[in-house]
Amino acid sequence: MTGHGTSGTETGTGTSTGSGTALEVSGLTVELRTPRGRTPVVRDVGFSVRSGQTLALLGESGCGKSMTAQAVAGLLDPVAEVVGGQVRLGGRDVLRLGRRERRSLAGPQLAMVFQDALTALNPVYTVGSQLAEPFRIHEQASRRVARNKAVELMERVGIPEPGLRAKAYPHQFSGGMRQRLLIAMAVALRPSVLLADEPTTALDVTVQAQIMELLAQLRRETRMALVLITHDLAVVGEQADQVAVMYSGTVVESGPVAEVFAAPRHPYTRGLLDSVPAGHPRGSTLPSIEGSPPRPGSVPTGCAFRARCPLARDRCATDLPPLVATGPGRASACHYWKELADV
Amino acid sequence: MLTFLRRRILSSAVPLLVVVLGVFFLARLTGDPANLYLPLSATQEMREAFSAQHGFDDPLLVQFGDYLAQLARLDFGESLRTAQPAAEAVLRAFPATLQLAGITLLLAAAGAVVVGSLAAYRPNSPADRIAGFLSSTAASTPDFWFAIMGVLIFAVTLDWLPTSGTVGAAAWVLPVATLLIRPFGVLVQVVRGAMVTALSEPYIKVARSKGAGERRVIFKHALRNAGAPTLTVAGDLAVGLINGAVVVETIFGWPGIGKLMIDSILQRDFAVLQAAVLLTALTIFALNLLIDICYVLIDPRVRQGALA
């Protein structure tokens, strides 16, 4: 099975493809080379983000959201391969660019913040030299100029005594500070799009809020488009303008966060929202989605969610529901979304 | 840093003493020097006079006590054969060994970093498989066999290289190649393993996300992280090189400390042998210290631990 070839994504990407669109992904399909053959892990994914806005890619672990981000950034491991789709960045499809050209965009156009800041910083170099690297690579800045810019960056993301701390090594910082450093490094060249892959997962709750606030502030200042990859519904609700809900390697619902959360149009989104503790009486059993997602490589025919879906019927086993527009800016990949909308 | 050095020096005092002890008594098991230095027809009186002159007639423990007392005064005794100070003979031979071992290690390390990194860049690629096969072959080649085959093919049959001596660059080829082959094979495998690990770390992806080119990714971000395991093994191999010099120097007539040791055993030249072994042990100790200092230089996390 090849996964891609299903159409309808273009109609479903929701937000307009007008002048403000910073990143537009369509039909993105990624396959994993395994000893037992090729396994699709990202199937026909599409979304777009406008400058100065935040799109949340929401989904549970293993749904392909990180793989999607790495495919967009061109950072997939050699075992994974993009086999179809488009990633339009500033009007150009970066999947068609050569390696050198693509590398020249990494930093000034598209940057990424990773999940675990301890392993994402190189342990044997000072943070100052790592923060100076974008300037050394893309602006051919001298050592001293790059260094000064690195210290400025550290100040901008709220590191106390940046001049002194630039000479310290990653292990000499706290988790929150390391995440700030990683963010500083990503926004060094004021990218038009920032991909943040679970940037707060490894942090304490109080620090999480500070990091999210820093990201929001930087987004407002530089009008960059932010793609926030997360499994945290609360973070999506607070931070994002748009949301794309992923399940089993594909987008099952997308639209403005407020609308999607108020009236979900896919049974999976509905299940996620129902399992949030707020709004349920204390002591009552929290609803959950029965079963677990299909493993990549053994995704059933038809709709991948049907085994866990309260609305599933015969048609769901045979016809893969395409992501279709369900209203202005909204899309759902469910044959029976209208039944949810009516409730 | 000073505490660290002092601790290291103190902790190596005991092993050094064991080396001194072992060499002293083992050497005297090789036979009576009088048999070698006096004619077969020598009378019992002549033998006793010879032994008394060189102090071999005292009980072993007394001899050992005298030796330690000498050592404390940095007096290493005299060569039985040449009547020169033993220390002089050893120090004269030492640079030849150091040069041979140093050049070999440098070539092995530089070659292994390049080959190992290239193999690690695409694990299980054809290049990786070829490097893996060749390096395991090299790592398991016996050096004496390699040396003899080298002499047979390149010196005797083809007459391209000299069989022995130190004059001219050609004289270096066979000794260096013989010493090089095993450390090179081992180091390629160690560098490859360490680089595969380093290249799969998240900070490599981060470097690429900053637009770093592949050369920067491999040789700046990954290589220094692969340095610590490589250094451990390289240090071990360097010790092996200095010891391995005994075989190679004997085969190729290289006037180094290894050949000096073999010659002094054959000639029951105890003072020279003891001085040579002691210097080798000190060199190995200094080497280990150097490796520890290198650790501290390449990994800041070790630095904090060492200074604490």
Automatic annotation (TrEMBL), chain A:
Principal location listed in the UniProt entry: membrane
UniProt cross-references to CDD domains, sorted A to Z: ABC_NikE_OppD_transporters
Entry's Gene Ontology molecular function annotations: ATP binding
Keywords linked to the UniProt accession: ATP-binding, Cell membrane, Membrane, Nucleotide-binding, Transport
UniProt-annotated stretches for the region Disordered: 1-24, 275-300
UniProt keyword annotation of Cell membrane present: yes
Location of the protein in the cell: Cell membrane
Bias kind Low complexity: ranges: 1-21
Domain ABC transporter: 23-273
One Pfam family from the record: oligo_HPY
Superkingdom of origin: Bacteria
Its membrane topology: Peripheral membrane protein
PANTHER family found in the cross-reference section: DIPEPTIDE TRANSPORT ATP-BINDING PROTEIN DPPD, OLIGOPEPTIDE TRANSPORT ATP-BINDING PROTEIN APPD
Homology family: Belongs to the ABC transporter superfamily.
Name this protein carries in UniProt: ABC transporter ATP-binding protein
Organism per entry: Streptomyces smyrnaeus
Biological classification of the source: Bacteria, Bacillati, Actinomycetota, Actinomycetes, Kitasatosporales
Automatic annotation (TrEMBL), chain B:
Record-linked CDD domains: TM_PBP2 (cd06261)
Membrane-related topology note: Multi-pass membrane protein
Domain ABC transmembrane type-1 stretches: 94-291
Membrane-spanning intervals of the chain: 12-31, 100-121, 133-157, 169-191, 270-298
Keyword match Transmembrane: yes
InterPro entries attached to this UniProt entry: BPD_transp_1_N, MetI-like, MetI-like_sf
Keywords carried by this UniProt record: Cell membrane, Membrane, Transmembrane, Transmembrane helix, Transport
The protein's name in its UniProt record: ABC transporter permease
